[in-house]
Amino acid sequence: MFTPKYPPQDTAPRATATAPTAYTPAPVQPSAPAPVPVAPVSNRPTVQLTPGSALALAAGGGAVVLVVGAVLVSLLLAVAITGVSVAVVAVVLRLLIKDLHKP
């Protein structure tokens, strides 16, 4: 299935031309209409959803969305809490350093 398909090898002997050869065009033949391309038939089984399986698929997708949303919100909340705590520590350190420099 995944092996490459190579064109057939040319079995005619190659001519080693020592002198230039003249090109003779092939005679023009009236062409027949091109065949209509046919869609390839797939060997894979088709998936048919019943109402129960569609409902289960929708419920599973909704659950995944809720879990991913909860994880993202918790990460955002962790970043916000960390930022606020760093800001509070910076203010406290600034006040302490300011008090140290008072005469």
UniProtKB/TrEMBL annotation:
<feature type="compositionally biased region" description="Pro residues">
    <location>
        <begin position="27"/>
        <end position="38"/>
    </location>
</feature>
<feature type="transmembrane region" description="Helical">
    <location>
        <begin position="54"/>
        <end position="73"/>
    </location>
</feature>
<feature type="transmembrane region" description="Helical">
    <location>
        <begin position="79"/>
        <end position="97"/>
    </location>
</feature>
<protein>
    <submittedName>
        <fullName>SpdD protein</fullName>
    </submittedName>
</protein>
<feature type="compositionally biased region" description="Low complexity">
    <location>
        <begin position="8"/>
        <end position="26"/>
    </location>
</feature>
<keyword id="KW-0472">Membrane</keyword>
<keyword id="KW-0812">Transmembrane</keyword>
<feature type="region of interest" description="Disordered">
    <location>
        <begin position="1"/>
        <end position="43"/>
    </location>
</feature>
<keyword id="KW-1133">Transmembrane helix</keyword>
